[in-house]
Design brief:
The protein has about 270 residues and is of the alpha+beta class. The chain contains seven helices and ten strands. It folds into three domains: about 180 residues, no CATH class; about 40 residues, no CATH class; about 40 residues, no CATH class. The strands form four sheets. The chain has a three-stranded antiparallel β-sheet with strand order 2-1-8, covered by helices on one side. Strands 5-6-7 form a three-stranded antiparallel β-sheet. The protein has a two-stranded antiparallel sheet with strand order 3-4. A hairpin with a 5-residue loop joins strand 3 and strand 4. Helix 1 crosses helix 2 and helix 2 packs antiparallel against helix 3. The longest helix is centred in the N-terminal third of the chain and has 19 residues.
């Protein structure tokens, strides 16, 4: 996932000769259609970037031939740097260069940027909170075998598969990520530390006649916890249920790190009367 921004920026630099500051939302998906282990990335990319001079540069075309080769280069280089050197690893890496002279496949159409940004955004939002296979796709379980269906990605047809129950369980649990692993990550000016500042800056430098791609997905300003809670549950989480006053943050304490936030330091000393 860390290679996504580096690879895309390299593609733009090679194709257009520009060092662009871009924004990306990268989602890791580990499951293939039949529930098999097929790790791949979905990248929601800003429709342009900020040039070193501080101007906005619209990008409406991605040269996919360059994308294939750049992804191959960055991924293989990453493997060479992080895998323990061995004859087997070296052989596999050399084979990856020889077997795919045109680069690794990125599933995108040639020509203009494919439409469907809104569709993929909804799909990913559903994927990250759902299991690899929904219960409705399980057709039969006889105590020993599980029969389920899936739609084949290449042919678009419904396929049925019957496998032993233990194998089916194995297919499902292999998609459980380690505790604390972030399936969705934000890079560039979509990163949390830069988002609000860059949002205001980009709004000021966008061309007056700039019209967003109707088929794209717009990242809306992020709502804070209080606003989301009021919208979802219809009540203010900061309003005291007893006195009706708005509660103020005093401190945040962690069992391991102690006080992370302590507002008492910024207030006048008070006398503890016990």
């Amino acid at each position: 996932m860390t290679l996504a921004q580096e690879c895309i920026k390299d593609v733009f630099k090679t194709a257009f000769g520009l060092e662009l500051d871009i924004g990306l939302v990268v989602v890791l998906q580990t499951a293939g259609r039949p529930g098999s282990y097929n790790p791949h990335l979905h990248i929601l990319l800003s429709s342009g970037g900020v040039t070193p001079e501080g101007n906005w540069r619209q990008i409406s075309y991605i040269p996919y031939e360059i994308l294939h080769r750049k992804w191959q280069f960055h991924l293989i280089r990453f493997l060479k740097e992080h895998l323990t050197p061995s004859p087997e690893v070296k052989s596999d890496i050399d084979k990856a260069w020889r077997q795919f002279p045109e680069g690794f496949v990125a599933h995108a159409q040639k020509g203009k940027v494919p439409p469907g940004g809104k569709g993929i955004a909804k799909y990913l939002a559903k994927y990250v909170v759902s299991p690899p296979i929904s219960v409705r796709r399980i057709e039969n379980y006889n105590g020993k075998e599980v029969c389920y269906w899936y739609r084949d990605h290449k042919t678009g047809t419904i396929q049925h598969e019957t496998i032993p129950a233990h194998k089916f369980i194995g297919r499902m649990v292999q998609h459980i990520l380690p505790k604390g692993f972030q399936r969705i990550r934000y890079y560039g000016f979509h990163s949390n530390v830069r988002y609000q500042q860059m949002l205001e800056k980009i709004q000021t430098i966008l061309p007056a006649k700039h019209t967003p791609d109707a088929g794209g997905y717009r990242v809306a300003p992020r709502k804070k916890f209080r606003e989301l809670s009021m919208q979802t549950y219809g009540r203010d989480p900061l309003k005291c249920p007893d006195c009706g006053n708005i509660m103020e943050l005093e401190s945040i304490w962690h069992q391991k790190y102690g006080f992370i936030v302590d507002m008492a330091y910024s207030k006048e000393p008070f006398e503890n009367t016990g």
